Amino acid sequence: MQDIRQETLNECTRAEQSASVVLWEIDLTEVGGERYFFCNEQNEKGEPVTWQGRQYQPYPIQGSGFELNGKGTSTRPTLTVSNLYGMVTGMAEDLQSLVGGTVVRRKVYARFLDAVNFVNGNSYADPEQEVISRWRIEQCSELSAVSASFVLSTPTETDGAVFPGRIMLANTCTWTYRGDECGYSGPAVADEYDQPTSDITKDKCSKCLSGCK
């Protein structure tokens, strides 16, 4: 269980959030390959995004289906990467379609990125403000001259563990308020800052444990 830092939770509720940056680590060392660090964008200086002192090279990469599922089955996200110069084709042929490799997804608000990413530095830089999820490459679902797509699973699914493999975030809720997973359908109780209210138009969830209580 990951304990989400309070500063990141606060950023989630800001009226004007900073951009959310998704950073990808593809670790193929367990299947005989190397570690790769990618980001689908550059920093404001037109350079690779740096996080915790490590550069994430700009490379076309896109993930989908990473939403949490509260109905019993683990989600099966898909990771799609460019096959520029046949790079993925070569690795897939040598490393059994990359099955068994690890994918680490990091979400960071731009507000907390390393100071080196900004022309004028960044006094809010904080290397601990990240949300991490880890996945295993289960299958290469598509491979063409343009791109490659991989189906991911949680590590507990691939190692036979019985414990449910969905991501758990401490003290924060990612379900839709009053949705199927939430289960609450009563009268208005509080606004997004946990302040009591009877006004249904202001009734919102703070996305924190205190909001559920």
TrEMBL record:
InterPro entries: Phage_lambda_L (IPR006487). GO terms for molecular function: iron-sulfur cluster binding. One of its GO terms (biological process) is symbiont entry into host cell. Pfam families: Phage_tail_L. One of its GO terms (cellular component) is host cell cytoplasm. Signal peptide: none annotated. It comes from the Bacteria. NCBIfam families: phage_tail_L. This is Phage minor tail protein L. It comes from Escherichia coli.
